[in-house]
Design goal:
6 strands, alpha+beta
Length: about 130
C-alpha cells in the first residue's frame, strides 16, 4: 500500500480491520485518525480481547480480512508470544489488539484523545455518510 496510500484506501482497510475484530468479539473497537498528529502512520485500530486465545483469534481474523479486502499483509506482528498487546504494523495503519487489562493500563485513547475517531460499524457509517 505505501508509499502513503490515499487516505480513503487507508480508511477502508482500517474499517475492514475493525469489523474483523468485532466479528471475533473484539471489545470497544475504535479507529483513531492520528495522521494529523504524527507522521508515522495515518490510523490506529484499537480493540480488546478477554484472554490470550481470543487476542490471537482477533489477530488472525484481522490479517485474513484485510488481505481479502485487497490490502497487504502486516509488515510485522509483535507481541503474539504472550498476547497481552499485539501490534500489527500495516505501515499506513496499525492495529493494536490488547488484553483488557493491558489496554486499561496503557490508555492509548487518552494519549491520542485529540485524534479524530473514524466510524466503522454499519450504524455509525450510515450516520456519517459511509466510507
Amino acid at each position: 500500500m505505501s508509499p502513503r496510500s490515499s487516505l480513503d484506501q487507508v480508511r477502508e482497510l482500517a474499517v475492514e480491520a475493525a469489523r474483523a475484530a468485532s466479528d471475533k468479539q473484539g471489545q470497544d473497537t475504535v479507529i483513531l485518525a492520528i495522521g494529523e498528529l504524527v507522521s508515522i502512520t495515518d490510523a490506529f485500530v484499537l480493540t480488546s480481547g478477554t484472554n490470550p486465545r481470543q487476542v490471537r483469534t482477533i489477530v488472525e481474523e484481522v490479517e485474513l480480512k484485510v488481505k481479502q479486502a485487497g490490502g497487504p499483509g502486516p509488515s510485522r506482528i509483535e507481541g503474539l508470544d504472550d498476547a497481552r498487546w499485539v501490534l500489527m504494523d500495516y505501515g499506513d495503519f496499525v492495529v493494536h489488539v490488547f488484553l483488557e487489562e493491558a489496554r486499561e493500563f496503557y490508555e492509548l485513547e487518552r494519549l491520542w484523545r485529540d485524534a479524530e475517531v473514524w466510524a466503522w460499524d454499519d450504524e455509525a457509517l450510515a450516520a456519517s455518510g459511509g466510507v
